[in-house]
UniProtKB/TrEMBL annotation, chain A:
Protein's name according to its UniProt entry: ER lumen protein-retaining receptor
Pfam families xref list: ER_lumen_recept
RNA-binding recorded as keyword: no
Keyword Zinc-finger belongs to the record: no
Signal peptide from the UniProt entry: none
UniProt subcellular location: Endoplasmic reticulum membrane
Transmembrane segments: 52-75, 95-115, 121-139, 151-170, 182-201
InterPro entries documented for this protein: ER_ret_rcpt (IPR000133)
Family the UniProt entry places it in: Belongs to the ERD2 family.
Amino acid sequence: MNLFRLAGDMSHLLSVCVLLLKIRATKSCRGISLKTQELYALVFVTRYLDLFYSYISLYNSIMKVTFIATAVSIIRYMRFDKVVKQTYDKEQDTFRYAFLVAPCLVLALVLNHRFTFTEVLWTFSIYLEAVAILPQLVLMQRTQNIDNLTANYVALLGAYRGLYIVNWIYRYFTEPHYRQWLVWISGVVQTALYADFFYFYTKAWKHNTRLQLPA
Amino acid sequence: VSKGATHDEL
């Protein structure tokens, strides 16, 4: 575990905290894509199946359980909380699951390190995580006033991916057998998706104005 | 590619 990886994980954890804070404190999930949240839940469930058969560290296990539990909690608020569910922009959140899930599944079946059930699911989760933010980005383009908590949530998610890339570069040079092009390519694609967002995020921050993404 | 190396991240 290096500092970049830890900072990435903390950024990821903080993003979830910011989202839960927004939902619980403001009783609103306006501007948040349920599709992205459900895709993340699918990512975590398919990737962390190894909780049942392989142990890496207490840190890893706690983080995995935390990410699954918080993802389920967020979905529960957005779908079933009487107050929160009324603030969900259902008509705007129109991205189709199949457009993302199907290609990722096909790709995982074709491009993987080992053709086993758990390995294919793990690879699927890597591909799906790369594109799971798309419904959220599309929803933000359609939302006129993006609130600060939503903007910070997405910024923290982007920071998490960026820090993981630095972590991979560090590990490439410090660990002799650390080669995983499949994860790296997906990670770079995922981070690139945030480039546009970060451009407007820093611009809004510099001029102290509200974030607005051009349609 | 060693499996262990790729599965220790979150």
